[in-house]
Structure formats: structure tokens, C-alpha cells
Amino acid sequence: MMVTKNMLVLVLVNVITFSLVSGSVWLDVPNTAMDYDLYYEVLNEELCEEQLAYIKSDRLLAATFADAGFRFPKGFFDGSSVDLGNYHQCLGLKEQLPTSELEGKYCMIEIPFDQDFDFPINFKETNFNPKLLPLAEREEKLKKYNMSGTHRSSPDSWLYYSLIRVAICIPKPCTTRQALSSLNTLSFEYVDEFCRLPNDKPWVPADIVAIVLFSIIGLLTVLSTTYDVWKKVVMKNDPKSVSVLWTAFSVYTNSQRLMTFTSSGGNIECLDGIRALSMAWVVLIHTLTTEGVIANDLEIYQWMETWQSLWITGAHMAVDTFFTLSGFLLVYTTLGKFTGKQLIKNIHLFWLNRLLRMFPLLAVVSLLEASLLNRFGDGPEWRKVASRIESCRTNWWATMTHTQNYMTPFFMCIGPSWYLAVDTQLHVLSPILLFWVLLGNRKIALTALFGGLIAILSAATTYNFISNFQAFLLGHDDGNYFKNYYMNTLTRASPFFVGMIFGYFAKTFKIKLRKWQVVCFWVLALSLSTFIMYADYATRFEFNQTVANFYNSFIRPLWALFLGSLIYMCNRGYGGPINWFLSLNVWKIHSRVSFAIYLLHEGLMTAVNHWSITPIYFTVSAMTYKFLSHYTFVFIAAFVAVLLVDAPFSTLFKLVLGGGGKKTQKQEVDVESTKKEATE
């Protein structure tokens, strides 16, 4: 009952905290990341006319407003359809007029291409019209890669669907139409997209909650570290005599545990390398997908058609790596420790332990994205960051209950957390098979494991052939593929089941192989991985629905088969240089912070990428450099998060679940138990 009461308290604190965060449960506070009412409150038609007249009379001021805005997008024929102007220059404009203060307002407008433009040039004399430009090649590329911009309808030309987005800088009290209509020589049809003003990010309860919570954690860290250093360093007391509870938040102790690489018996060393490299692979693909405005979109799509892009476009397999490792470790770590009856008797603790492993970091990162991320930076495309923030403020409950892949698939708090939802759902269902595995009978265990895999593959294959999904994540998608296939528990479960099978093999089956057999195995394994990568490339743009259905059904369990075989061979001493590389100590620290990296990376990268005030020109070398900088930044943030949040709460949970401080020495040296199975 003590455990249950403590857990109920934690759940209650969670509900109260995030109810305040959302601002819509108990408090009448808007969840918006920007003060949209402010944009309407500042409008004043008479004041606008007065300020426009002043600008016209001052050529330097007029040039400054013009310089901060309206330009035709550079690189239009390379796929660029956006010009961002100069965001900070526009919002920094401020001048005191005789009767008012003149300030700049940054606005973005959408200009459809299917219209006659009236520019201050005599087109009749110059024989020029933008619609008569030699756009056939661009039109074919736009059609091929489905790069259109608006919902306008016309059967004549793909360009009738295209638009350009340009920034304009206007006086604060003006609408875009009033400001542009003052330029009598400039006339065209357009649509307002958004406007931005200085200090348009309102403070909300989430910000206050975050500041208070992080301040408390900071204070506990200082006090705990001071006590720890005083006892162990200054007084040189025996570490066994120092209170584990009082040192739970100590940076001194937690950093020692985090940086200790001594291996205990039974660990599979290669898992660290697999986990660390897979996490880096995830960050790599998100380096591209979280980018802001790109100046040469067409070149990216052309490059993605080539085999040279496989090292990036194949990164979606990294998530299947995590599913495989999760299933593997579930069986490997429980087999021999429990019986089937003990599992059923303590199933509530089995589930609770799983949830508590993820709870502290997941809650803190959710709160961070709902609050202080909005103060992290700013830029012309910050609306995309604001959308993440608003999703967190509204839909945090789906993230904390691990239901976001079904309840809020397009408005998730922490984008990559859909994986945690699927993984948690699989862990909740896993005792159905795990019970038979823990009975101790090999035939029953294998029958249950292979029966479960066959059942899930049959159901997923049937579902895929009925639904007819596309076969490539980065292709055009109306949301159906992402929601109903990519984040679906049924279609993503097979690697988890394959991992469970290999976890059982690694624990119970010992084999002896000759050298030629080992060589043959590695040739087959590497051939399988090569085939998987080639299949990813082959199904990319030459679309065949039957092939796509088979690909979606079997490519992920095949990847899990390759990965599980690799782990098994490395564990049995047949890994050679591959096992040596994956077992290097350098991967251990990356592996231990991988869960924090997974939660933090996309939000931080999206914010950093959307600071940019100009479109980014894509090259492979530039993206590689950006990936390295992103990974370094996120790694540091993750390391701090583990020290200040994950490690302290792991210790506290162990004290609660373990019955107090009698096992302090074991808890202090048990590094592996603090890892997160979610990304292991």
C-alpha cells in the first residue's frame, strides 16, 4: 500500500501541474504561443494614413521599410518560393513622430502565380510578363515532386497551383492592404498569411510553473551537491555512511555514476554502440526534416532520388532498432528473475516500473516545450515552433498517457514521443506472451513467441494490403500514411516481437560455430542489410502498390532479424571487429543519455533552425556540419537533463520501490538499472 500511495501522489502532482500548463483545464487563459489579439488591437486606419504619409516624405525611412521587406524570391527556378525579408530589421524600426511613435510590423503574404501582375514597369513596351517565362522544366519538376503551394484550382497548368511567399514591412497600425494600396503603381492579388510584432509572446501559467519547478530542482541540486561534497570530499566519510536520499540530486555522485564504465556480468556490450549510433541516425534525419525555409528544394528532391542519399533517407529504420532492442531487453532482463505466476501477481508493479522509468524526463521536456521553448529564440518562421508549443499546452495529457499516436497524431507534444506511445502499448500487452516465456518450458516459450510474431505479421500484412499505403516516409503524404501506418502499433509491432525472440535465444541458446560458418553468417547478415537499404531506394519513386504493401509489411521485421542476429553473434563471441567497435567505451555515455537526446533533440533543433532570417541553401557537406553541431548541442542538453532530473528521480523511485536505504551501496553502483529501456 505504501508504494500505491506514493504513486497516486505522483500522478496527482502530474495532473495538477499539467492542468496549470495547459491553461485550458482550470484557468481561463489562452493556450496560444503568440498574442493574436494584439495584431488586431493595434490597427488604426487614420493613424496608418498619417504614418504612411510621413514615410513617403522621408526617402531614407521609406528605403529602410522597403529594405526590410518586399523582394521576389531568389533561386525561384531551383525551387525557392519564399523570401523572408529582414525580420529583426523590420521589428527594430522605431521613430518618434510629432503625434505618434512609428514602429515596424513584419508580415508575410502569399501571392498566387496565376494572375496578371501590374508592376511600375511598362510591360507592353518591354514585352515582359512573369507568366510567359520559360517555366516548362520547373513546372515538370514541381509536378514530379508535388511541390505546390496553394489550393487554387485550374486544369491548364501546374503553375496555377503555385504561389510565392514574400515578407513586407509596414507601419504597426496598418493592414497589409492599406499599406500596399498606398503604392499606386503596384497591384496584384495576394492573401495575408501572418503578421508579427515585438513582444507578442504572452506569459502563460506554463511559464510560471516551469520557472518555479526548474528553480526548485536547481535549489535541490545545489543543496544536495554541497552536502555530498562536504561529506565525501571535505570530511572524507565512508560513502556507505552517506545518506542516499540526501545525495539523490548531487551532481558529484550522479556524474560519477554516469561516467563509470565498469561492466557487470551479463551485460551485452554491443548494445551501447547500437543504441548510440541509432540515436545519432535519428538526429541526422531530423537535421533535414526540422530545417526552416530551404532555398533549393528541387535539388534536395533530385538528390534524394540517388543512392547517395540512403545514409539519410534510410534513417527511419533507427526507430525499428529501438523497438527491437526494447523487446530484446524485456525478455533478456526478466527471464530467470521471475516466474509466470510472479509476473501476473505483480503485473501492476511491472507496468508501474515501466512508466516511472520514463515519467520524470518526459514530464520535464513536455513542460519545457509548453513554456520556455517559446523564449528560446525568434524568427520569421517561428510560427512552426509556436505550433509545437501550442500542441504541448493543449495535448500534454496524450503524451503523459502514451496515447498521442491515436488521440493527437497531428498535434503531438514532443514529436518523436509517438515512439514512446507505441513502445509503452507493446509493453502493456507483452505479459500475454511473457507469461508463457517465464514458465520455464522451452517448447511453450518458443511456441508463444513465434506464434505471436506470426499473428502480428499476418494481421499487419492484411491491414497493409487493405489500406494500400505508400512505401516511403519522405514522399508526398496527406496524413494517411503517417497516422495510420507509421505511428500505428499494429504495423510497428513486428520488430518488438522479433527482439523478444532474440532476447530469449540470447538467454537460453548457446551455439558453437566454426570459422567458415561465422564467415557465412556475416556474409548473409550484411547481404540482408544491403538488400533492406536497396529496397528502401528501389521503392522510393518507382511506385508499385503491391511491392509497397510487401515492403511495408516485411521490411521492418527483416531489419529486426538482421539486428537481432548481429546482437546474438556479438554476445556469443562471434562479432569480431564489429563487436569491438560497438563495445567501445565511447558509446556508453552516449547510450546512457540517449533517452534524453530522443526527447529533447527535435524541439531544440526546430527552434534553432527557425531562428534563421534567410532561406538555407542545402548541400550535403553543409547539412553534415549542421548535424554535428546539432548533435553536440543536444548531447550537452541531454547530459544536463540526466544529471539534474533523470538520475535523481531514478534514485528516489528505487528508494520507494526498494523499501528504503538499506541497499544504498548497490543502488550507488548499479549504473545499468538507471538506463531507460524505452530507447535501449
TrEMBL record:
Domain Acyltransferase, first and last residues per copy: 269-645
Classification via InterPro entries: Acyl_transf_3_dom, Nose-resist-to-fluoxetine_N, O2_lipid_transport_reg
Pfam families in the cross-refs: Acyl_transf_3 (PF01757), NRF (PF20146)
Membrane-spanning ranges: 208-230, 276-295, 315-335, 355-373, 418-439, 446-466, 486-506, 518-535, 555-574, 595-613, 633-657
GO MF assignments: acyltransferase activity, transferring groups other than amino-acyl groups
GO cellular component term of the entry, any: plasma membrane
Record's keyword terms, sorted: Membrane, Signal, Transmembrane, Transmembrane helix
Signal sequence annotation: 1-23
The Nose resistant-to-fluoxetine protein N-terminal domain, residue ranges: 53-178
PANTHER family assigned to the protein according to its UniProt record, in alphabetical order: O-ACYLTRANSFERASE, O-ACYLTRANSFERASE LIKE PROTEIN
Record-given protein name: Acyltransferase 3 domain-containing protein
Classification lineage: Eukaryota, Metazoa, Ecdysozoa, Arthropoda, Hexapoda
